[in-house]
Write a structure and sequence with these properties.
Elements (H helix, E strand, L loop, with lengths): L1 H13 L3 H8 L3 H18 L5 H15 L3 E4 L6 E4 L11 H9 L6 E2 L11 E2 L1 H12 L6 H12 L22 H17 L2 H11 L4 H8 L3 H18 L4 H14 L2
Antiparallel strand pairs: 1-2, 3-4
Helix pairs in contact: 1-3, 3-8, 4-7, 4-11, 5-7, 8-12, 9-11, 10-11
């Protein structure tokens, strides 16, 4: 336990600046303790093997963010990506049509590890993943969630998926679920504890539609740093499940309240 505690303090409380963030965001000791408990749980979860979908999500998100051939509009899980010189009309097909587009891209060299190797397969090499995403976006602009859905359908990936899927309407309920409310509150708390101060500012800037260059000037850093922070924010939201629209909205509400 002493080793776990020391690692948590070094990696998260100090390394990621979470201690300051939690102290600033916790109005009372009870909330601080809850944030700390959530942070410890997430630290332990991070030490476990990640799913193939989680790894793919990170790779796709970085590819979209870091490649000039792709352009994005919007924010959060609803951010639409397209080819910079391609059509900006959103893809509106169902799963069957999406799978049809994915299969029409031709054959791909798929990488599979032996089950006993205890490795997470990258599924596609970098060039093949780029070819898949580029070909897919020729059918219209898509969210990262839609692209992930196409990958799961095309290559039969069965492990859990990042939250924030194609249709938010499909998750609509007739009324608030008390248990769901508790879960959402936990996720919001976990996300606020996970984000560094700069990441919180970047997320607010993204939501307000501030261009990357202007945001870099405001925060006194480079555009490359902004791009890196966006990728890290996306990874955090995907891992915690807080890129789901309802949860992300509450995270943003909390951040806006703090910065009001």
């Amino acid at each position: 336990m002493d080793e776990v505690f020391a690692d948590w303090v070094a990696a998260r409380l100090v390394g990621r600046g979470q201690l300051l963030a939690m102290l600033q965001r916790a109005p009372v000791l009870r909330v601080f303790r809850r944030m700390a408990e959530t942070s410890v749980r997430q630290h332990l979860v991070d030490g476990l093997a990640r799913s193939q979908s989680a790894n793919l999500y990170d790779r796709v998100a970085r590819l979209l963010e870091e490649t000039e051939r792709f352009a994005g509009s919007g924010s959060g899980s609803g951010r639409l990506w397209r080819l910079a010189d391609g059509r900006d009309k959103p893809f509106e097909g169902d799963d069957r049509q999406l799978l049809g587009v994915a299969w029409a891209l031709g054959e791909f060299q798929v990488i599979r590890y032996d089950a006993e190797a205890r490795k997470l397969s990258p599924l596609l090499e970098a060039e093949e993943l780029d070819r898949f995403v580029s070909g897919l976006l020729k059918a219209g602009s898509m969210t990262t969630g839609t692209i992930m859905r196409a990958l799961r359908l095309r290559f039969a990936i069965e492990d859990p998926t990042p939250a924030g899927e194609l249709d938010t309407a499909a998750d609509a309920s007739t009324g608030p679920d008390p248990e769901a409310e508790v879960v959402i509150a936990e996720l919001v708390t976990a996300t606020l504890a996970e984000l560094t101060m700069r990441q919180a500012q970047v997320l607010i800037g993204i939501e307000n539609g501030v261009p990357g260059r202007e945001l870099a000037v405001q925060l006194g850093c480079s555009t490359g740093t902004i791009s890196h922070e966006r990728g890290r924010i996306g990874a955090i939201l995907a891992r915690l499940g807080t890129d789901a629209p309802e949860v992300l909205k509450r995270v943003l509400d909390a951040l806006f309240t703090e910065n009001a």
